[in-house]
Amino acid sequence: MRLCVALLSLSLCLGLMGHVRAQEEADDVEMDVEDAIDDMREEDVEEEEEKAPGPPPVPTVTYRAPEPMGEHYFAESFDKGTLQGWVLSQAKKDGIDEEIAKYDGKWEVEEMKDTKLPGDKGLVLKSKAKHHAISALLLRPFTFDTKPLIVQYEVNFQTGIDCGGAYVKLLAQTPDLDLEEFVDKTPYTIMFGPDKCGEDYKLHFIFRHKNPKTGEFEEKHAKKPDADLRTYYTDKKTHLYTLVLNPDNSFEILIDQTVVNSGSLLNDMTPPINPPAEIEDPDDHKPEDWDERPKIQDPDSVKPEDWDEDAPAKIPDEDAVKPDGWLDEEPEYIGDPDALKPEDWDEDMDGEWEAPQIPNPICETAPGCGPWERPMIDNPNYKGKWKPPMIDNPNYQGVWKPRKIPNPDFFEDLHPFRMTPFSAVGLELWSMSSDIFFDNFFVTSDRTVAERWAADGWGLKKAAEGAAEPDMSTFKLNKCCRKQIFCDKVIHMKTTRCLFFTSSFIIF
């Protein structure tokens, strides 16, 4: 019997020990999982640190020179690497000092300093504080008839722009046009493009209108764009400038294929295309008795007998009382007791020396010092100088204006689009900044052809510049995805712990 009891006790003990050992092993497994997760977390963090993700690699954009596809009058990409076809002015500018009169500013064909598109070349204005002039003939003159005009080109202010222009001139077709003599006074049909000096950011559209009566030309300026142009001058990116003129006299000005100004040649140019039909008669004069006064003083008004014009505006306040503690015998300012007469003071030359005045320290705690005077208040009886009241002028005739007469210079040009034909493209510029980059000049009458040229030229630059600026939002998303993968590694071991990791890892 005792033997059975002993065996039963031994069995229970072994079972209890086994349960305890199993529990310990389970705890060990739990700790191993915890440790594994911690180890994996540490390893992953170390791996993340060792393989610290940087910006994604810059996609490469291969340059290919644009080719004009369709009708055009001028196309220049400068990718041949020379100034072939362009003429440098050999002239001098009139009316200025001989030292700076010559058009000796330097031009080069080269890539941009910080090009994102190797192989792409352009025309670069290289000199500061110089006159520059260069031009090239069109394939054939452009005549304004039934087709629109589209002019576009690119500009990049590589080093910024302080004061200078980057506009193009379309040189008028004239019998005496000599590109070697191209100067500021060479007749042009249109001037178009950016210009800046100080904080004045301009985008010119100017055309020379021929007076049908006199044959003389007058510059007409488009209204100023409402858009803020500052960015285009300061971001050091390549921008595409486009002018579209239509036979219906409408115009559009675009930057980077976005309209920034539009209007009508008939209604939105200054001065207006057509003069007024009537003008004021220069020989008409205002009659001497013409009364333009809408109000006059009442001639029947009389100054009241009790009106005192001599009463002062301010009087002493008779109710005022001198504050207690006022120091009548103490001056407000005294000579500085610490001041010393300068050693080089000459009383014969400088007069008797006196110490500089400082506030009297005794007066700092007193209500005041020096002789007390009553404060001044407004005089209730003050009326000032009497004036008769104003009444309507019974003889008022209104503001006089000269009569209108027919304008002897009047004309009506309903087709200002029909401008002077032009046969050359030119840049005649002064600039206080260098390294202005020009590229992809194009003149056509087909907007689709112009857009194709823009896509193959400026569009490629835009893609290259955009590729050089990585999308950091994608970079962050990739980081999150990599950390989520770590979470997936341990999800089968410890779900709650994994969720904790996930929530912490996706916070940046």
From TrEMBL:
Instruction: List GO molecular-function terms, semicolon-separated.
Output: calcium ion binding; carbohydrate binding; unfolded protein binding
Keywords for this protein = Acetylation, Calcium, Chaperone, Disulfide bond, Endoplasmic reticulum, Lectin, Lipoprotein, Membrane, Metal-binding, Mitochondrion, Palmitate, Phosphoprotein, Repeat, Signal, Transmembrane, Transmembrane helix, Ubl conjugation
Q: What is this protein called?
A: Calnexin
Task: Give positions of region: Disordered.
Answer: 264-340
Q: Which family does it belong to?
A: Belongs to the calreticulin family.
The membrane topology term of the UniProt record is: Single-pass type I membrane protein
InterPro entries, alphabetized: Calret/calnex (IPR001580), Calret/calnex_CS (IPR018124), Calreticulin/calnexin_P_dom_sf (IPR009033), ConA-like_dom_sf (IPR013320)
In its keyword annotation, does this UniProt entry include Ubl conjugation? Answer: yes
Which cell locations does it reside in?
Endoplasmic reticulum membrane; Melanosome membrane; Mitochondrion membrane
Cellular component terms (Gene Ontology): endoplasmic reticulum membrane; melanosome membrane; mitochondrial membrane
In terms of SUPFAM superfamilies, this protein maps to: Concanavalin A-like lectins/glucanases, P-domain of calnexin/calreticulin
User: Where does the record locate the signal sequence feature?
Assistant: 1-22
Q: Name one GO biological process term.
A: protein folding
The answer to whether the entry has keyword Repeat is: yes
Basic and acidic residues compositional bias, start-end = 283-322
UniProt biased composition (Acidic residues): 326-335
What is the recorded function of this protein according to its Swiss-Prot or TrEMBL entry? Calcium-binding protein that interacts with newly synthesized monoglucosylated glycoproteins in the endoplasmic reticulum. It may act in assisting protein assembly and/or in the retention within the ER of unassembled protein subunits. It seems to play a major role in the quality control apparatus of the ER by the retention of incorrectly folded proteins. Associated with partial T-cell antigen receptor complexes that escape the ER of immature thymocytes, it may function as a signaling complex regulating thymocyte maturation.
Where would you find the membrane-spanning parts of this chain? none
Q: List the disulfide bonds.
A: 163-197
